[in-house]
Amino acid sequence: MNSELYLAASKLMRLFRQHHRQYLEQHNLFLGQPKILSTLKKHPGLSQQELTTLTQGVKETVSMSVRRLMKSGLISRETDLVDKRKYSLYLTNTGEKVLETVDQGIKKLNDNLLNGFSEEEISQLTFFIQRIIENMEMNQCDEY
Fold it and tell me: Is the Cβ–Cβ distance between 25 and 68 less than 8 Å?
């Protein structure tokens, strides 16, 4: 039974990432970039280091994403007024529009994933997934 759960969870994660990636590609975005845009919307003027911390990202990955998002015109970088060695990142108007569109699309994707589930079932599913996440966060890989 547990191997069935493992296989089902693996397939679910693979399909979810695949659908998510395909949707984001339609908007010239990569996985993780909507989280960066959303974080900058909530916290304008972050440094890249602060952005990395808040998104719980990997420094190199966030750096690459920031460069791509700047090149796409979705975020801008300004020299910090206090510390001229530091840059502050901001969401552009174009970035806000793209984020709004992507957020709506992701909501539709989630609605499709949960099609046919009752509110109670969604609540239970969320509860169980949260418990699994907590178990995974408490246990280290070397404990297996």
Answer: no
pTM beyond 0.85: the answer is no
Nearest-10 crossing angle of helices 48-55, 33-42: 110
CATH fold for the domain made of 2-113: Arc Repressor Mutant, subunit A (1.10.10)
Q: Which amino acid is at 125?
A: L
DSSP per-residue letters across 89-119: EEE-HHHHHHHHHHHHHHHHHHHHHTTT--H
Domain residue spans in the chain?
2-113
Structure tokens at 105: 């699309």
Cα R_g (the chain), whole angstroms: 18
> Quick one: which of 97, 84, 81, 110 has its CA closest to 19?
110
**pLDDT tens for each residue of 28-71:** 999 899 999 999 999 999 999 999 999 998 999 999 999 999 99
Q: What is the Cα 115 distance to its own chain's centre?
A: 22
Whole-angstrom Cα distance, residue 12 to residue 111?
Answer: 15
* Beta bridge partners of residue 75, listed in sequence order: 91
